[in-house]
Amino acid sequence: MSRIGTVYLVGAGPGDPDLLTLRAARLLGAAEIVVHDGLVEPAVLAMARPGAKLVSVAKSRARHTLPQEEINALLVREALAGRDVVRLKGGDPFVFGRGGEEAEACHAAGVPVEVVPGVTSALGAAAAAQIPLTHREGASIVSFVAGQCKGLTEQNWAGLAGKGRTLVIYMGVKTAPQIAEKLMADGLSPETPLAVIENAARPTMRVLRGPLAALPDLVERERVKSPALIIIGDVTARTDAAVAQFALEAHS
């Protein structure tokens, strides 16, 4: 019986190659083929073994290099041909990464799967911006939501953000006006502080802040582009306050 390869669903973290797990780095250095998302940093791809086949399956809102069903088929086909495949994803494979669908397709075809978790983008972005997603005096509940999904306007987001809560929105740049409108319609104050983090854990990272009501204008004025996350809640104001206090003490 011919050998069947293994598909490794590997999280590449938010961008900085230093944030990969040791397991992820070792697999990248050994894999015969790496099937990667478009947002994976070139410095991470450079960790692949010399001669490895790199296949981009980049997705954007307007264009997919390969539909998800074809990505699933590609992984299965390569593994059944006896090759070990690293499916490299930004963040974590099982947090808005469609890793669950890929794992199911592999299992159905009899292909072994291993999931290697990564630093999900929410945690990586918050850490890079020094925004605590939870804080004893600010938030004890964190929610992750997708800002691009079917039926966005029909969903009930009441209770996801507000006092004692932090809301992290993935893929929300294009739908920022709808997100702000929805949250305010569901009862959130227009003055609720937020931060937009673009290119987290990368040299080009930006952290933009403002109130919820100004989110659409902020995104448009600053020409925010993916990858970017939106963090909504009182915790987003804590870093600014801490920096201001530190500066005050340093000059007193």
From TrEMBL:
SUPFAM superfamilies linked: Tetrapyrrole methylase
Domain of life (superkingdom): Bacteria
Keywords (A to Z) from UniProt: Methyltransferase, Porphyrin biosynthesis, S-adenosyl-L-methionine, Transferase
Enzyme Commission number(s): 2.1.1.107
Domain Tetrapyrrole methylase: 6-215
MF term (GO), any: uroporphyrin-III C-methyltransferase activity
CDD domains for the chain: SUMT
Pathway listed: Porphyrin-containing compound metabolism; siroheme biosynthesis; precorrin-2 from uroporphyrinogen III: step 1/1
One Gene Ontology term from the biological process aspect of the record: methylation
Family that this chain belongs to: Belongs to the precorrin methyltransferase family.
Record-given protein name: uroporphyrinogen-III C-methyltransferase
Organismal lineage: Bacteria, Pseudomonadati, Pseudomonadota, Alphaproteobacteria, Sphingomonadales
